[in-house]
Each structure stands twice: as structure tokens, then as C-alpha cells.
Amino acid sequence: MVKRCVSCFIFSLILLFFSCKHNKQPCSLQSVSKKTNNIEVKVDPNVELMMIIGRLAGAVPYNFINQKAVQYINEIDTYFEHYKLEPVIESTKKNNLNYGSLPEFGMYMNKDISGFILDLNNKNFKIQGRNDIPAKKIGYYASNQYLDEIRDFKVKSNFDKFFENHRNLYEVMIEDIVTILIESEFNKWLETFYGYKIKENKCVYVSFLTGGGNFGLSIYNSKGTPIPHIVVYAGETKNMYLYLISHEFLHPCTLKMCEELYQNEKIQNIFNNLLFKNSSMYISHGYSSGFALLNETITQACANKFLERQLPESTMNLLVEKEIVEYQQFIYVPQIASYFDDYIINRKKYKTLNEFIPKLEEYIEDL
């Protein structure tokens, strides 16, 4: 009986091997991940795969020149050099997938890339990168062709081997961020500041592939609840990680608030005029609308309330002066961040940040 069970197990493994090999079905890889205080930090194979495809397709910002001589990027360029003409690369170009839309697609793919973690017909399966359009109305989500091409690329390039060979590196990348999240008690601050809890795990995806770019996305669950999922560039200093994590996590949390504020014509005019005055600089940074500037401004002003608790005053002042105001021209961040003190001091009156929006709206009108 025991011999028969062992034989059956071995036979099953053989069938699995040939199924993966001959049907071009990639075997599921496990993410490298670690969870702390309702935040999961990970290198996810599907997300990493999509960003590698983006680099081969020349998509922004994955097409950067490796000036920092990051060994991992050199290894990607060498390992995948002969796969630039695969069908998935051309499809990625045709569909204009870039920035956050590539990792977003990877976050929604299921483990074996046969479909998505949500049913395509679920009304809550919406794509933030396309202004909350239902996924079923977007060609590369609705058709199986793009998924087929991704699976085919994954098998042909032996992506699984590449990923497994770098598992130790991924573990080090993850540990750096986990330590910072624990020491700063970021999740506790986030829930206190906004006045509500998110039951599902928020996620940090860490990667060298963005070339310094970072994204804050909302990935919807089956009930339509947006869960913050962020992508941050690996290898940063502690202070820069604090800056990136706070900013990107707050993007999904402030999006709806900014949409409400932007309905005010006075606020529209303020940020549209700001865009007009510095259009070439803003566009080069990926901000092409007055709403984008408002969203960045409110997000960073909120993030500053966290950073003020973590950084020495001199470091915080330098960050605001150089990185936020001088380099990015978010000139209203210091004033709005200071105004949030009124919210923090009066939490008995304002249980959540959303309850503070009318007061904030009045203040922004008079900037």
C-alpha cells in the first residue's frame, strides 16, 4: 500500500512536469514576502515579470539607462536579451502599457497566469490606471491573447529559474523595508490619521526595475473595497524609504478626497494655473493635469504629518525646501501640511479625515 502511494506521487510529479513543459503552462512561483502589522512586503513573480516585459518593450520608466550599475538590472538585460521580439513585447507597446499599469496588471493576474484574481464580469473589477474603467471594457484584460503571450514568454525565457536564482536578494530587499515599517509604526499612524482601518493586507512591492519610479495603486477586492498596493524602488536610504512609503501609501487613501475637492472651480483654477506656469517641468515628471498636481499636493501634505514625527527638524526642512518645493514645485505643500495641524488638534471634532474636507476646501480656495 505504501509503495503504491509513493508510485502514485512520483507519477503525479511526472505528469505535472510534462504538463508545464508541453502545454506551456508556467508552474506557480511563490512570492518572496514578509508581513508586519497588516502590511505585506513582497517581491511578487507576476509583478516582477510584468516590469521586465515593460523594460524589454522600452516602456517608461522601466527603460532607464543603468547609470547606478545595479547588478540585478545588468543580469536582467543579459538574461532576457534574446526575447525582445516575443509577441508580448509588441502587444505591450501597442497597448501603451507603462508606469503603474504594468505592475497593476501583474497584481491582478492569478498565480498560473490563466486569468485574474477577480471575475472579469465582477462590476468591482476596475482599473485605476484607466480611471476606474471596468476591466472587461479594456482589450488587454478582456481578451485571453495578452495572458497567453505572457505565459508563453514566461516559459520560453525560463523566468522561473531567473526568479528563483535571485530569491536571496529579494529577501534582503524585503527585510530592509520591514524593519523600517516596524520601527516607525507606520500602519498604526496611517489608521489613526485617516480614522479608519483596512482589514485586508496592504502591500509594498519592492523592485529595482522602476529606475527610481514609485507608484501608489488601489487594487479592488470582490466587494469593491480599494486596498493600497504600492511599488517602491529598492536600495534606498532609511529616510528616503520613509518618504516613499508614506507618500505612495497615501495616494490611494487621498484619491477620492481629491476628486471631491477638484469639483470646486476655484480649486481647479488654482492648480490649472500652476500647471500652466510650470508645464514642461511637471509633464517631464509625469504630471499632466491640474488634478494630478492637486492629488500630489494633498498626498504629500498628509505624508508630511508622518515624516514630521520621524525625521529631525533640520532634515524635514531640507526635504520640504529641496525635494518637494524646489525640485518638484509643489509650492502649496508646506501651507496645507501646516493647516492639517488643525485637524490633528481637533480629533474630537473630526473623527476621520473625510470630515475635515469642508474646512480644507475653504482653506485651499484662499491659497
Please outline the helices and strands.
Elements (H helix, E strand, L loop, with lengths): L1 H21 L9 E5 L2 E5 L1 H12 L14 H9 L7 H8 L6 H8 L17 E2 L5 E2 L4 H4 L2 H12 L2 H7 L1 H18 L1 H9 L7 E6 L7 E6 L5 E8 L4 H24 L3 H13 L1 H6 L5 H21 L2 H15 L5 H13 L11 H9 L2
Helix pairs in contact: 2-5, 4-7, 11-14, 12-14, 14-16
Keywords:
single chain, 367 residues, alpha/beta, two-stranded antiparallel sheet
Structure notes:
This protein is of the alpha/beta class and 367 residues long. Helix content is 57%, strand content 9%. It is built from 17 helices and seven strands. The strands form two sheets. A five-stranded mixed beta sheet has the order 1-2-5-7-6, sandwiched between helices. Strands 3-4 form a two-stranded antiparallel ribbon. Helix 2 runs antiparallel to helix 5, helix 4 packs across helix 7 and helix 12 crosses helix 14. The longest helix has 24 residues. It is globular. 35% of the residues are buried.
Cα shape: globular
End-to-end gap? 80 Å
Care to count the β-strands? 7
Mind summarizing the main beta sheet?
A: 5 strands, mixed
Regions with pLDDT < 50 over 5+ consecutive residues? 8-23
In helices, the fraction of residues equals 55-70%
- What is the mean pLDDT? 91
Determine the number of helices (DSSP H or I, runs of at least 4 residues).
17
Strand order within the widest sheet? Answer: 1-2-5-7-6
Radius of gyration: 22 Å
Q: What's a quick, concise take on this entry?
A:
This protein is an alpha/beta fold and 367 residues long. It contains 17 helices and 7 strands. The longest helix is centred in the C-terminal third of the chain and has 24 residues, at 238-261.
